[in-house]
Amino acid sequence: MNRRQLLRTTTALGVAAPTAAAASGAAAAPGAAPAPASAQDPSRPLRVHVVMFDGVEELDFAAPYEVLSAARFFTPRPVEVRYVSATGARAVTGAYGTAVRGLRSWDPGAADVLVVPGGGYARRDDPGVWAEIDRGTLPRALAAAPRPGLTVAALCTGVMLLAAAGLTAGRPCTTHHRAGADLRRQGGLVKDARVVDDGDLVTAGGITSGLDLGLRLVRRELGADAAAGLEEMLEYEARGTVWSA
Q1: Distance between CA atoms of 91 and 100, rounded to whole angstroms?
Q2: Rounded to an integer, what distance in angstroms lies between the CA atom of residue 35 and that of residue 221?
Q3: DJ-1/PfpI domain spans which residues (predicted)?
Q4: How many CB atoms within 10 Å of residue 157?
Q5: Per-residue pLDDT tens for 133-177?
Q6: What is the full DSSP assignment across 159-216?
Q7: 3-17+50-166+208-235: CATH number
Q8: What is the pTM of this model?
Q9: Are 94 and 56 in contact (CB under 8 A)?
């Protein structure tokens, strides 16, 4: 057993009792926000799809993927995380040359959470967000994805893909600081916050915010105990302001 697996196992054991108690039907505190629709059945897996494309920023997709994948150590609820592509099951190449294989086909109807990373926004002629906007395939797929029970999330310049899909117009949101003016021009109500939680739309600003976005989604979908256990394992505390509707 390697050190990381040992840390995961021992930390998970440390929070197993309170997590199990929460799952056993303990009443919610008065005034507590209702659980997300996807959390109503704890026996059903939480299904997370991370959207991939050529030029995607490595940290943008890796951070939420790791946080959400590791969440299964801190909850009795199954968690399934996969990489998907709107252009079919294939491989993609990240902004720094990382090849990612084994992507699954686009199927947002089989997801509870859709996470859209960014990448390549500063280099309009390179693969990345601008190329995907110009091609149109991914924005059209994102525009058709929303439905009751699905949370659409994005971080950094991946939020601009949501803007191109018309999903941020008139909605509180955030993005990388260098793309904020573009997001406002496209109708987004940009908030000065690390994470903006507007119910079925959750956005985060900056490349490293994938950690904070992941922890916010874990807290919403799996509870505070799971988020606290993850922070201990990762040796990272969620930082910055969370704006919540």
Answers
A1: 5
A2: 7
A3: 47-219
A4: 29
A5: 999 999 999 999 999 999 999 999 999 999 999 999 999 999 999
A6: HHHHHHTTSSBTSEE---GGGHHHHHHTTBEE-SSSEEE-SSEEEE-STTHHHHHHHH
A7: 3.40.50.880
A8: 0.84
A9: yes
Q: Which residues, listed in sequence order, are joined to residue 155 by a DSSP beta bridge?
A: 204
DSSP state of 115: E
- Structure tokens that stand for 130 in this block: 């601008």
Phi and psi for 105 in degrees, rounded to 5? Answer: -70, 155
Helix (H, G, I), strand (E, B) or coil at 100: strand
Q: For the chain, give the number of residues.
A: 245
Tokens standing for 53? 């494309």
Contacts of 111 (CB under 8 A, 6+ apart): 47, 48, 49, 150
Nearest to 37 by CA among 148, 115, 197: 148
pLDDT at 8: 46
Q: Which residue has the tokens 């859209």?
A: 116
Distances, alpha carbon 216 to alpha carbons 40, 71, 149, in Å: 18, 12, 17
What is the SS3 assignment for 135? helix
- From CA 70, how far away is CA 126, in angstroms rounded? 32
Q: Tokens in use for 105? A: 């086909």
Describe the crossing of helices 209-222 and 224-234 by its angle, rounded to 10 degrees: 150
- 51 three-state secondary structure: strand
CA distance 200 to 183: 18
Instruction: Work out the number of other CB atoms within 10 angstroms of the CB of residue 55.
Output: 21
Q: How far apart are CA 26 and CA 42, in angstroms?
A: 13
What pLDDT is recorded for position 27?
Answer: 34
Sign of CA dihedral 147, 69, 51, 168: positive
